[in-house]
Specification:
CATH class of the largest domain: Mainly Beta
InterPro entries: Cu-oxidase-like_N, Cu-oxidase_2nd, Cu-oxidase_C, Cu-oxidase_fam, Cupredoxin, CuRO_2_AO-like, CuRO_3_AO-like
Number of strands: 36
Number of helices: 4
Family: Belongs to the multicopper oxidase family.
Strand content: 35-45%
Keywords: Glycoprotein, Signal
Number of domains: 3
Structural class: mainly beta
Protein name: L-ascorbate oxidase homolog
Radius of gyration: 22 Å
Helix content: under 10%
Organism: Ziziphus jujuba var. spinosa
Shape: globular
Largest sheet: 7 strands, mixed
């Protein structure tokens, strides 16, 4: 896989501070930029529902830097989302302290660097939110808990990859796959025979879907991005870009070592890598070839996706649109149709949503909105349905009303699987199918027990429909999780707006907010 490029050094200190009775606890993290050689992936964040996190990030790079939190909803607090639409970058040699609460969330997520194609250099890590002790979990406590961060990898430095994209070209096929920062058989998970373990698996790659499987072992799916799932058993799981799953695996096979396999999906050239499931009493290592993946047909993956449903009997945090848990009984207030495309604009490869290819503004959108700085963006600068026209460049912001309930249809007329993520929200995946979406497609929606998550795939020449409660005021990034497409314009921002100037709806601007661009010279708020 080539040598990793060491960018800087990271120190992580975790401390739980005693608090006043009844107050949610605080956890403090002290970070020094991103880390590759010393600890790659980065240190895992471990917290409990409603914990307050104080994360101090020191940027030791020679370029600006931001960390974002994939799947952490930042309730009432898009100020901490860590993307350029909400935050000024941390300058080289300086620090920024994120203050966020994992309000009413559980589950398996990850953090990642969001600027300048840094994600291609690593800098990502696991983010685990455990349930509070008073909330029952719908399975016995496992004997151990493992995090697996897997995805494709390029040997080239992130700056070289960025230069290729800036020159108007797509990236070549990845050089390989990594599991927790290691190549084939480079990482070992040790288990005791007869015990059950939880594996939290995320696809942190740049461009490809993956399939995950463990030789000779079944996987019991229990959680999908914060939602307790129907406990189906799978031999392998397709995990698309940006997605996270939790499975239970019982070490019930003869004592030896077994392959853990990750391979690319829906690619002409199939890349694979392995790690090791090691029984503590094993007398032999892995042998033979790793097990092959499932059929390459889309239908297999589509049927698996449809089988992933909500556990209706489980306790824990649940989406609560408009005061009701019955998502299928609520009337939608707005339909948004989003079509991806790959236009050539000004002689360069770009990617777009509804013909708009996003360009970054000179000032974070959230700051421009808060300080009422004109000329940075215009509301409605991206249409809410496909136009059918050619692509054009624009800083795209779509407006939405707080407490609305949106139907969003992702339409993919291309030959490649798409993966879409929306910051600040989970959504209900009510339908996915091949062909063109029409209003008649609503007849096939699952309005009873669909899964709720924050990242969803759209298969080639297909559509995916979601219902999303607009219950979180802020400026939220809607993006492709294919990092090439995201970087070259397949993203926009959704401004969920409330006219009330109230802490009930949104927290005020942080006192330590960094100011840049046209926001320089403005004041945050008094100490």
């Amino acid at each position: 896989m080539g040598e990793y490029k060491s960018l800087c050094y990271v120190v992580l200190v975790s401390l739980i501070v005693s608090c006043i009775t009844g107050e949610d606890p605080y956890r403090f993290y002290n970070w020094n930029g991103i880390l590759i050689n010393g600890q790659f992936p980065g240190p895992q964040i471990e917290c409990v529902t409603n914990d307050n996190l104080i994360i101090n990030v020191f940027n030791s790079l020679d370029e600006p830097f931001l960390i974002s939190w994939n799947g952490v909803q930042q309730r009432r607090n898009s100020w901490q989302d860590g993307v350029y639409g909400t935050n000024c970058p941390i300058p080289p040699g300086q620090n920024f302290t994120y203050v966020l609460q994992v309000k009413d969330q559980i589950g398996s997520y990850f953090y990642f660097p969001s600027l300048a194609f840094h994600k291609a250099a690593g800098g990502f890590g696991g983010f685990k939110i455990a349930s509070r002790s008073v909330i029952p979990v719908p399975f016995p406590p496992p004997a151990g808990d493992f995090t697996i961060l897997a995805g494709d990898w390029y040997k080239q430095n992130h700056t070289d990859l960025k230069a290729i994209l800036d020159g108007g070209h797509d990236l070549p096929f990845p050089d390989g796959l990594l599991i927790n920062g290691r190549g084939s058989n480079g990482y070992t998970f040790t288990v005791d025979q007869g015990k059950t373990y939880r594996f939290r698996i995320s696809n942190v790659g740049l461009t490809t879907s993956i399939n995950f499987r463990i030789e000779g072992h079944k996987m019991l799916l229990v959680e999908v991005e914060g939602t307790h799932s129907l406990q189906n058993t799978y031999d392998s799981l397709d995990i698309h870009l940006g997605q996270s799953y939790s499975v239970l695996v019982t070490a019930d096979q003869p004592a030896k070592d077994y392959y853990i396999v990750v391979s690319t999906r829906f690619t002409t050239q199939v890349l694979s890598t392995t790690s090791i499931l090691h029984y503590g009493n094993s007398g032999s290592g892995v042998s033979g070839s790793p097990p092959g993946g499932p059929t390459t047909q889309i239908d297999w993956s589509l049927e698996q996706a449809r089988s992933i449903r909500r556990n209706l009997s489980a306790s824990g945090p649940r989406p609560n649109p408009q005061g009701s848990y019955h998502y299928g009984l609520i009337n939608t207030t707005h339909t948004i149709r989003l079509a991806n495309a790959a236009p050539i604009i000004n002689g360069k490869q770009r990617y777009s949503v509804n013909s708009v290819s996003f360009i970054q503004p000179d000032t974070p959108l959230k700051l421009a909105d808060y300080f009422k700085i004109s000329g940075v963006f215009s509301l409605g600068s991206i249409p809410d349905s496909p136009t059918g026209g050619g692509g054009y460049l624009q800083t795209a912001v779509m407006n939405a009303d707080f407490r609305g309930y949106a139907e969003i249809i992702f339409e993919n007329a291309e030959e490649f699987v798409q993966s879409w993520h929306i910051d600040g929200h989970n959504f209900f995946i009510v339908g996915m199918d091949g062909g063109q979406w029409t209003p008649a497609s609503r007849l096939s929606y699952n309005l009873r027990d669909t899964i709720s998550r924050c990242t969803v795939q759209v298969y080639p020449n297909s559509w995916t429909a979601v219902y999303m409660p607009l219950d979180n005021v802020g400026m939220w990034n809607v993006r492709s999780e294919n990092w090439v497409r995201q970087y070259l314009g397949q993203q926009f921002y959704l401004r969920v707006y409330s006219p009330a100037n109230s802490w009930r709806d949104e927290y005020p601007i942080p006192r330590n907010a960094l100011l840049c661009g046209r926001a320089v010279g403005h004041r945050t708020r008094s100490l």
